Amino acid sequence: MAATRFPVEAGHIMMFARAVGDPNPVYDAGRTDPGEVIAPPTFVMASAQYDPDHPLRPRPGEPWLGSGRTPSGVPRDDGDGGTGLHAEQHFTYHRPLRPGDVLTVESREGERWEKQGRRGGVLRFSETIVEYRDQDGRLVVTSRMVGVRTERAPGEAG
Amino acid sequence: MALSSKELAVGAERDAVVVDDLTRTQLVMYAGASGDYNPLHTDEVFATQVAGFPGVFAHGMLTMALTGKALTDWVGDGRLRTFGVQFRGQVWPGDTLTTTMTVRALADVDGEPVAELDVVTRNLQGDVVLTGTASAVLDP
Fold first, then answer.
1. Which residues of B touch A69 (CB under 8 A)?
2. Quick check: A58 contacting B, CB < 8 Å?
3. What would the CATH number be for the domain defined by A5-149?
4. Among B64, B30, B20, B77, which residue's Cα sits nearest to residue A15?
């Protein structure tokens, strides 16, 4: 479900930093020599933009989870009232990303486990490892994401 | 500007307000920049009527990115070697978040000084919304 190729662009970095409310000029090629621009620490998440089938983006001609004429365009997928949430996120950085980098993205499933939730119901955890390599094949960022799916009424993650 | 290892001691601590009165529009901005348009974060009708939450809430990754801003403001640009977090509670529109960073250890890794940091981000009520760790290469 991840993009396979992620071109890192200066305008995208600027918009991402702006969305985070980070005015650091090192993210803005309009204020910093473009050769000096780097991406902020969580920027690889934006590789979702380059996944043509990213499930968390409305796509033309396909039903969308969010509201339109009705509160949701699709029935709940599991019928248990559960919700998927992000529980943990870990990055290892080998060097900063720069505009002009073209990353190759490889994603694989990691471990899966279950835990009893504080409010009852089983919490199902699953891990996804994503490796981002540069145009020379060197590993630049490794991401380990842990997702959790609650069994019933929404509550806090973890 | 990067931190020098001479300026830091184990136990050194720094606080930073990373967002003041979080707006729903910032959630939309983050959705647009990151590509994560999950309606839990962008669509009040869906979040309340379908998912059963009190309203839209922030992407966990926005809270991590806000925490990351506190780190890079302290340790300098391009200095992080690791950054990992657990999402501990939801962040809501109107929240003001403060990140506290503490130096847990100072180490020498392959001849470079590295600071090991603990991070915790809390809302105005003092609830922990994120905990984590980071490591950063320092200037000698």
1. none
2. yes
3. 3.10.129.10
4. B30
